[in-house]
Structure formats: structure tokens, C-alpha cells
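pinned: reference chain
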Amino acid sequence: MFKIPSKVSILLSCVLCVLLFIGCIVAAVLLPFGVELLANERNGFLINGIITEGQRTGVMLFGYIGVAAIALAVGMLFALLIRVKGGKVFTDKSIALIRGVSWACYLLAIAFIGIGFTYNVSFVAAFLAVFLGLCLRVVKNVLEEACRIKDENDLTV
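pinned: its C-alpha cells
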């Protein structure tokens, strides 16, 4: 299988983080237009076939919470990549960043649940966000244990 060198992979990941952060800014600007487009479209996504003004406001609110959660997670991932590039992987700060990304996933899930009461397909996205948050919690726990073992080994030398 094709393997990208580590430095290139980190650089590519940093570029993707920057692009995704820019995408979050664009999404925040275009969110009102997207909600209006979905509200005017008669499709199977709406729970009762119509959207009220209160539901539009709710979708906008939870949409902005979701975009903020993604932007926050991307910022923490970028900071983690910078730490990886500097060789600071098994540290409390790196573990805290992974923990923060997992909490951002849970915040995103809450946003999708809020939108789900208007657009039922959002419940699927909420489930996926919770699953991703759980995966990150497991990775965080593994790295936390690895960090503990590394610190213990450093003391015995």
C-alpha cells in the first residue's frame, strides 16, 4: 500500500485543517441561505412537511452551534498536529487536545439532535458524532496510559 512520508502527511493534514476551518467560516456565512433553501424545498427531510418560523430559528441556532463545534475541533486538531510535528506526542497537553476534540464531537451531536426535531435525518449524524467522540475518548485513554508508562520508564533510567 502507498505510504506517505510522515512530514508530508503532517503538512497535508495541516493544510486540510486550514481548508476545513475556512469551510466553517463559509458555512457560518451561508447557513441562513441553506436553512431557507431547505425550508422552501418540499422533501422527505422535514418531519411534518412544513417548517415553522420557530423551527427555522432553532435550526439556525443549532446550526451555528454545530459549525462552532467543528471549528473548535479543527483548531484543536491543528494544535495537536503542530505538537506531533515537534515530537510532543506523549504529553498531558496533547492528551488534553484529544479530549477537547472528543467533547467538541459531543457538542456537535447535541447540535444535530436539536436540528433532528425538524430534520429527522440529523439524528443519524448525531449518532455518528457520538460514535466519533467515543472513538476519540478510547484513543485518548490509550495515549494517556502510554504517557503514564513513558513517564514511569523515564524515571527508572
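why pinned: Residues 6-40 form the longest helix (35 residues). The CA atoms of residues 77 and 101 lie 7 Å apart.
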